[in-house]
Amino acid sequence: MDSRETLGLLMQATLVGSAAIALVLPARRALYRAFGARVAYAAWWLVPAALIALALPAMDMAPGDAPASALGYAALRLAAPLGIVSGFAGREAGFAWQPWALGAWACGAIASALLMARAQAKFRAALGTLRPHGDAWRAERAAEGLPATIGVFAPRIVVPADFESRYDATQRELILAHERTHVARGDAWANIAVAALRCLSWFNPLVHLAARSFRHDQELACDAIVVARHPQSRRAYGDALIQAQLGAEASPLACHFGFGHPLRERIAMLREPIATRRRRIAGNAAVAVLASAAAFAAWASQPVATALQDATPSEASTKVLIHPEGGFSELRMPPPKYPKEALDAGLGGTVNLIIDVEADGRITGVSVENATTTDPRLAAAAAKAAWDWKFKPAMQDGKPVAGRIRVPITFSAGEPGATGKG
Q1: pLDDT tens digits, residue range 244-277?
Q2: By C-alpha distance, which of 274, 131, 126, 244 is closest to 179?
Q3: Using one digit for the tens of pLDDT, what is the confidence trace for 42-90?
Q4: Residue 35 near residue 286, CB atoms below 8 Å
Q5: Is this structure's pTM higher than 0.85?
Q6: Residue 234, CA atoms < 13 Å, CB-side half-sphere
Q7: 3-state helix, strand, coil in the chain (%, to 5)
Q8: How far is it, in rounded angstroms, from Cα 168 to Cα 316?
Q9: Disulfide-capable partner of 35 in 39, 60, 290, 304 (CB 3.0 to 4.6 Å)?
Q10: H helices present in 245-339, as ranges
Q11: Tens digit of pLDDT for each residue in 280-320?
Q12: What 3-state DSSP class applies to 320?
């Protein structure tokens, strides 16, 4: 996979992930009111479901079928002027910017990972020596950011040095129950996945916004589980939340008992009725339907981006009409390949290309000026073919000069035969 294909995949994942996040952010509120905090937290499964669907094999379209998702059209049209998706931009003879863009993305991802690792190491160092405290561990010094659960493979519940004096017996048991819930649910792994997504999508502000909402929903879900198990201890639980409230998140990976701004929402949740099992089942079923729909939409978006890779040589007439600007004439112009799906469906039309030609005849730019066809595969096929063309440059004062030409390309599915030029 070259840099152009990697950037295309990154852009497609960004579009799919952003669309899934844009769906979850408003939906989580409605799900919370209808089904409770645990179902609202489960709604975040829509994001990995959509991203995982991109890794599944693309579907095979029957002749004449249109792509099943508008997302594929959007991705291809957005990528076209950027020169990312295979078929719209081939090789740039002058300057290949794609490797530089990929390098910039990689540098940003590495820098983000290093910053998170630094914050995690700083938090862990501030704890000092950890000493056993029942099934938990007591920190030697720090109280800020605690209680919390740290670690992934061997998660440990860490309480502050003043745990015994800061909380009464009931509050201590509720806090430990909250952190044990994090461990039982494997929330540390979820936080690792979110941190990785933030690093890979460091340029996407929507991902960082979603990460904070995700952590908030995670704490609300654990609150709901503990309150359901200890319904008579709501007041004590609320008091413990107020005492442990943090001004800021201390660790990007740990599960903090006191983390979750605004605190008012967590306190308000304590006054709400506990969601029944039937209500949660209905809510989880609704989330499953939404996740399946999001995954299908992401999966169905793939054929448009990959259709050109399966294109076959034209079995119909492809007329190339050249209108030189500045005295250019063609030396080598192999016709575009007619995409098989468009050919079988009888789709045609004219694509007007604008081609930049250097003084030595090299192609340095290809763009689609306009097109009478609504099928982006035809525009992609035309632009892809143009990169293989060779022109004799115009002459000015006895010297070759660079310039620009306009080339209309007409795809006609109904006239099998030879290629014409005029």
Answers
A1: 765 445 577 777 776 555 677 888 888 888 889 8
A2: 244
A3: 999 999 999 999 887 755 444 334 444 444 444 444 444 444 333 333 3
A4: yes
A5: no
A6: 13
A7: 50, 15, 35
A8: 83
A9: 39
A10: 263-269, 277-300, 302-306
A11: 999 999 999 999 998 988 887 664 433 333 333 333 333 33
A12: strand
Nearest of 307, 284, 280, 251 to residue 124 by alpha carbon: 251
Can you list the positions of beta strands (E) in 135-174? Answer: 136-139, 148-150, 156-159
Work out whether the CA dihedral 225, 229, 230, 231 comes out positive or negative.
positive
Q: Residue 148 forms beta bridges with which residues?
A: 158, 256
pLDDT classification of 401: cutoffs 50, 70, 90 = confident
What's the chain's Rg over C-alpha atoms? 29
The residues that bridge with 410 in the sheet, in sequence order, are 319, 350
Going from N- to C-terminal start, the domains of the chain cover 3-300, 311-411
Residue pair 80/379 in contact by the 8 Å Cβ criterion: yes
**Which of the four pLDDT bands, split at 50, 70 and 90, describes residue 330?**
low
Nearest to 71 by CA among 351, 303, 369, 381: 303
Rounded-to-integer distance, Cα 339 and Cα 379, Å: 10
CA atoms within 13 A on the CB side of 260: 28
